[in-house]
Write a structure and sequence with these properties.
Elements lengths: L7 H6 L4 E2 L10 H17 L3 H21 L7 E4 L2 H11 L8 E6 L4 H13 L2 E6 L7 H8 L5 E5 L12 H5 L8 E5 L18 E6 L11 E4 L44 H15 L4 H18 L9 E2 L11 E5 L3 H10 L2 E2 L1 E3 L2 E5 L6 H11 L4
Parallel strand pairs: 1-11, 3-4, 3-5, 5-6, 6-7
Antiparallel strand pairs: 2-8, 7-8, 9-10, 10-13, 12-13
Keywords: Aminotransferase, Pyridoxal phosphate, Transferase
GO molecular function: transaminase activity
Organism: Sphingomonas rosea
Length: about 375
């Protein structure tokens, strides 16, 4: 069985490529092309009135899809932006300062570059005081963060670590310490959204959650999303004019806010990603492909990929996230001093992977089948 027919445009654009970086830039299915075209056609057909359809029809549909995927049942807690970095800025500005001095931020040593870099720059400028905990042992990370959160205003942790594929368990322990007056808990879900089934169930009451369409949502860039727990940050300082609708209780001239997640909304945006996302979700529904079903498909291919390493140079690497019970990342992380060298050698065979320091990452998606795993085995066998 194969699902390549859902990705004919992307696969046909580079037919000789073996793209094992679905965790990095996930190939776009044909349904996303239809969404992009519909966005353009709506702009031509409706002109100024396109916003009535986008905000009145498509936005609520996208909110409902995200809430269902997260397992929260709270569509009005979802807001969209161009990327998650936009939301990081809004959260930094809105989070309560419970002590004198800069915002106290607690995070880990394994966060993605956007947070790592921004936090480092804010430390330089004196805008935050930063504490970082080691990821390992991952089994105790949530508890260690919860214990340290008493001295923090904002806590940010990835649900799946982007570098190693480590899944962080017991986040309910961390969620339990979150309060509207601080600390705030932010879960970076970029590698769990549409990769782990219902990743925010039982957590959405207290936690913010960041994710996007670029990876397993298969919708491309431009779809940053955030789940906003009710009562946290009713008046964000960074605010666009879209956030002021529906607050009619204030006197004229006052800055009003929506009561739901729209309070974190910005201003005019490119809506094409929402169109793409909704078309992809309809495709998955039509194919009866849930996140659980896709994860099973990926797990089977991942097992074959792992087996193909035996007897090759890659067998020398340490597997940082070996398959096991429970949720797993959609990629294999292989640590070895030759990781960058291997990445280039694979690329010479038109096999696309990526490397983070000394970690080679091999990502699998719905567009892979058994023949792809056999081809990778053949390429890996040629590595010195």
């Amino acid at each position: 069985m194969s699902y390549k027919s859902l990705f004919l445009r992307s696969l046909g654009a580079a037919p000789d490529r073996l793209h094992l970086a679905a965790h990095s830039h996930h190939l776009w299915p044909d349904a996303s092309f239809a969404g992009q075209v519909e966005c353009w056609e709506d702009a031509a057909r409706l002109a100024d009135r396109k916003w009535d359809r986008i905000m009145g029809e498509l936005w609520p549909q996208a909110q409902a899809e995200v809430a269902a995927e997260l397992g929260t049942g709270q569509p009005d807690a979802i807001v969209f932006a161009a990327n998650t970095h936009d939301f990081l800025l809004r959260l930094w500005a809105a989070a309560p300062r419970r002590a004198d001095g800069p915002l106290r931020v607690l995070t880990t040593e394994g966060e993605f570059h956007s947070a790592r870099r921004q936090f480092a720059r804010w430390v330089e400028s004196g805008d935050i005081a930063l504490t970082k905990l080691p990821v390992e042992p991952a089994a105790t990370l949530a508890g260690r963060l919860a214990a340290a959160a008493k001295d923090a205003d904002l806590v940010l942790v990835s649900q799946v670590m982007f570098g190693t594929g480590t899944v962080v368990p017991h986040l309910d322990k961390l969620a339990a310490v979150a309060e509207p007056e601080g600390p705030w808990v932010v879960i970076d879900g970029y590698h769990s959204f549409m990769a782990i089934e219902r990743p925010l169930v039982n957590l959405g009451k207290n936690c913010f959650y960041l994710a996007g369409g670029y990876k397993y949502a298969m919708s491309g860039e431009g779809l940053g999303l955030m789940h906003c727990p009710p009562g946290f940050g009713p008046r964000p300082p960074f605010t666009g004019w879209y956030a002021e609708f529906e607050d009619l209780s204030l006197p004229p001239g006052q800055v009003g806010y929506a009561k739901d997640a729209m309070r974190f909304m910005g201003a005019t945006f490119d809506a094409s990603a929402i169109y793409r996302f909704l078309h992809v979700r309809r495709m998955l529904e039509a194919e009866k492909l849930s996140t659980f079903a896709i994860s099973q498909w990926v797990a089977e291919r991942k097992a074959a990929l792992l087996a193909s390493l035996e007897g090759t140079a890659l067998a020398e690497a340490e597997i940082l996230n070996p398959p096991g019970p429970g949720p797993t990342a959609r990629f294999l992380a292989l640590r070895h001093p030759r990781a960058a060298e291997w990445q280039q050698a694979l690329l010479a065979h038109d096999c696309v992977t990526d490397v983070r320091g000394d970690v080679l990452r091999l990502g699998i998606g719905l567009y892979h089948d058994d023949e792809d795993m056999e081809r990778f085995a053949s390429i890996a066998a040629r590595l010195d």
